[in-house]
Amino acid sequence: MRIAVALKLARVSNLPTVWTNVMAGAVLAGAGWTDPRLPVAMVAMSLFYTGGMFLNDAYDRDFDTRFRPDRPIPAGQVTVAQVFGWGYGMMAGGLVLLVGAAQMSRGASAWGAPLGGLCLAGAIVLYDAWHKSNPLSPVVMGLCRMLVYVTAALSVVAMPGAAVYVGAGVSLAYLIGLTYAAKKEHLDRLDHAWPLAFLLAPAGYGAVLAVAAPLTLVPLAMLVGWGALAVRRLFRRGPGDVPKAVVALIAGISLLDAVLLAGHGAPEAAVLAIVAFVVTLRLQRWVAGT
Question: Per-residue pLDDT tens for 205-221?
Fold first, then answer.
């Protein structure tokens, strides 16, 4: 398989949003953003993400033949068997790394992170195999990202506190709104507007965090402004507006993480998350984010 094809299948432009998820999950669990265990967790979550993206193309091969013939499988650039093999193989590799990360950790249990990884793998496969006909697929996608936070937290502590689950829940809401918009991306339209209300959850929670941590207002203002521009595209519905809004909202995941990080006493990590947002936007010009 050529590298260019693999990068397209993996949608690598969105990987920085996975890394900020890991950082946020660890910080919300009480670990420092410079914790030496985080790089291993980031690599593991990257393998789950890229493996899931490979499987997304494998399961969507018939749909892509009709609506997206430029994708690698219908274009004849790679076989279905190769994509399935690499996809499941990468997720297995991520699980092995989580076992190693648990062994490195002094505060995490030996089973917590691998168990989180198994749940994440199950949610990814469920989404990839069933999302086209499943009306609840936005919830399943949100659950995938939620499990990234929880699994990252379990890589550094045995019992994550409420902050992890609240932050992951806010991310779940954001992903529900984002994924609903993405479901109609191939048609370049949006049938209903009400699911987009889920995108407001980060603004509400960020306002609460800003009471005790005023620096949260900086990434919060960026997230609200960026989200408003993306939603404006969704309502405008000009040619190409829906796909552009979707990739913009994907990049915004790192801004959400910046809000969580700043709100929980890690402003330096919040700056890195903002940098990740910019990097994601740049990478999306090189490799399509959807």
Answer: 999 999 999 999 999 99
